[in-house]
Structures are given as C-alpha cells and as structure tokens.
Amino acid sequence: MEYYGAMFNEGGAPQNTTRNILTRGFILGFLALFLSIAANHALIPTLPIFFLKFGSNETEIGVLIGVFAASSLVSRFLVGRALLSYSKKSIMIFGALLSAATFLASIVLRPFWPFFAIRIFQGAAFAFVDTAVLSLVVTVIPPAYRGQGFGYLLLAPTLALVVAPSFGMFLINRYSFTVLFLTCMGVALCAFFCSCMLKEKDSAAPGRNAAAGSNSFFDLKIIAPAVTNFLYSFVWGALIAFVPLYAINCGIKNPGYFFSAIAIMLIAGRALGGRIMDIYNKEKLILIFVFTSMVAVVMLAFSKNLPMFIFVGLIWGTGGTFFSPASLAYALDYSGSTSGAAIGTFRAIMDLGFAVGPAIMGIIVPFTGYRIMFLCLALICLINLSYFQFYVRKKGKAAK
After folding, report:
1. How far apart are CA 238 and CA 392, in angstroms?
2. How far apart are CA 118 and CA 64, in angstroms?
C-alpha cells in the first residue's frame, strides 16, 4: 500500500477516473491489442479442426497449439529487454506486421513441421504486441487505479473472445480456411495501423533511470505470484485445445458458443465491476475465482449438450472476470516493480502454462478420454488454490 500511495501522491489525485484512464495512448493500445488477439482467437476453435483435417493426431494438435505459447514465453523475455532500448510503438508495429505475415504463410503451408514454424512466429508476434501494450498502459494509468485500468484493458481479449471464435467457425463453415487466414491477416494489419497512430511521447522507450534500474531479462521477485497464473493458464490452454474437439464429439456444430459465453460474462463483469479490483482485497478475489474455475472444469467433464457447454462457459467467465486483472495488479504490487522485465516475466510464465497445458493433456487424453482429462484439470485448479493460500499469501505477508 505504501508503494502505491507513494506513486499516486507524486502524480496528484486524479479528478476523474475515466478521463485519467482513457487517454489517447490507452485507447490506441487497447485497439491494437484487441485486433491482435481477435486475429489469434479466430483460430481457437478452427485450428484443431484444420489440423485434424490434414491428418494430425491429438498429440500433434496439442503440440501445435502449445508451441504458440512456448514461443510467446521465450519472446517476452526478449521484449522486456528490448523495451529498455526501443519505443513501445516500434515494437508493436513489428509484432503486428510479423503476425500478418504468419497468416499469409498459413494459406500455403500445411501441418506438421511447416505449421510448427508458423506457430512459433505467431507466438513471438503476439508477445511483441501484448507486452508492449501492457508496458504502455502501466505508464498512462494512475497507480491508484491500476486494477481498474487493467480490468478495462483486459476487455480487449474478452471482446475478441466474444466475436472471433464464432466468426472463425462461420468463415470455415461458409467459405474456407483460406478465407479465414486472409481475414486474420487483414485484422492484424488493422492492429499495425493502430500502432502507427500512437504518438511517440505516449510510447517512448524508458529513460536512463528506468534502464539503470532494470537491466535484466527477467524479474525474480514476480515469479512466486506468477506461478498462480501459470497454473490457471495451464488449465485454460488445455480447454482451448480440446473443448472444440470434445464439443464436436458431443454433436455440437459450433464450439465457438462456449467461448462466446465466457466472453459475455467477462464483459459484463469488467464493465460493471471494474472498480472492485481497487476496492476489495485482491488475494481474496484470486482465491474465490480460482475455486470458481475448478467448479467449471468439473461440470465440463459431465457436459453433453450445447446448453450445458454455454452454462459452463458462463461460470468460467465469472471466474476469469476478476482473476486476470487482479492477479496482474497483485503480482506487480507483490514485486514492487512495473518494469518491462517484470511484465515480460509475468506474461512469460503465464505463456508457459498455455504451452505445457495442451501438450501434456494431449498426451493424457488418448489414454483417459476427455472426462478424466477434465477432472485432471480440476485437480490442477485445486493445487493452484492451495499454492496461493498457503505459500504466496504467507510469503507476501512475511515480506511486508
């Protein structure tokens, strides 16, 4: 609290919360992040089907889905370091252009190894845009409203989750995978134009003082709270990879509705309860919504029809509404740093969960089936709950 208070007092108390959060830099960063994520989220329900169509098995699908996050993980350490020397604007521009190029390559290349390389570059491109936008937002949001600001920013992936998966399924059902990849390329180019519109003063590289204070590729202090995000992302990454296949096995034609249900709850929660992250104890919010995610995964294991899938999506979305912004704000407070290295480390550990979750569950599911696999994910949620309660909270209190 002293850390937040000191930073807040230096800048003076904002007179209007919304006006101080919704700056030009924030809005352009939000749009660039939304478009970048929408291009990738259109692939959530469609890529597993695409890989299956060209002969990939479930283990290969898990690897091809997970390598995106593995590449993003490694790239975030490089981006965190690069932010000390290059402007956020230039990094966002590079990431958006690289993303567009990967979608163009997806039209002509086919699984396994050619697409393995494409997914590596897609993960790197996303890391460039995402980490640069988060670093930008940290500099333009008043510290006292950081939780609320992150809540607003994380509406970008939420809104993308509402429209992109279902729209992606619409494109492949109505047209073809070629049309899907061309559309994603166009969306990535729109993210490029938003990045170009940023003013340099909103996205300048850190000054000498910032560089002097952070000359490492990663921040060790943020690792303990970031592990909670790793476990959460482990589960979420597995759901992204296998819910579409599980839903199709249950006779559901458009698995995108599951992800749309999640997104609707995220939008409602963050639009109506953004201030909650700055009022209520973040530790309690994290515990509550990790438990909620565990309940959702258990229910998913026994879901067989579209209404149940939508209901589970609503429950998962309720948990994710506050978990992501609360855990990020809590981790930055815990580590006492808002540097590019700290943000890059936090997001890299989260990406590690996205990478290993689909890969490990892809190995397990052929032997256990989907129901047991989902119950294993529920066990991961329980481990996460215990880890945060009995290790992270106690260590944080001892440090204070």
Report:
1. 24
2. 10
DSSP output for 182-201: HHHHHHHHHHHHHHHTS-HH
Per-residue model confidence (pLDDT) at position 276: 64
Q: What is the mean pLDDT of the chain?
A: 82
Q: What is d(CA 374, CA 258) in angstroms, rounded to the nearest whole number?
A: 15
For residue 219, pLDDT over 80 is answered with: no
Domain ranges of the chain: 22-205+217-395
Residue type, 274: G
CATH number for region 22-205+217-395: 1.20.1250.20
Cα separation, 75 vs 88, whole angstroms: 15
pLDDT digits (tens, 9 = 90+) for 312-332: 999 998 888 778 878 888 888
Distance CA 124, CA 15 (A): 39
Q: From the DSSP assignment, how many helices (H) and strands (E) are in the chain?
A: 19, 0
Cα dihedral sign, 336-342-343-348: negative
Per DSSP, 23 falls in state: -
> How far apart are alpha carbons 12 and 9 in whole angstroms?
5
Q: Which residue has the tokens 């973040």?
A: 282
Packing angle between helix 155-174 and helix 177-196, nearest 10 degrees?
150
Tell me, what DSSP letter sits at residue 253? S
Counting Cα atoms < 13 Å in the Cβ hemisphere of 5 gives 2
DSSP codes of every residue in 10-29? HH---S-HHHHHS-HHHHHH
Angle (CA) 341 343 349, round 5°: 95
Could you give the CA distance from residue 368 to residue 346 in angstroms, rounded to a whole number? 32
Which residue do the tokens 């590729």 mark?
Answer: 217
Nearest to 3 by CA among 282, 335, 251: 335
**Length reported for the chain:** 400
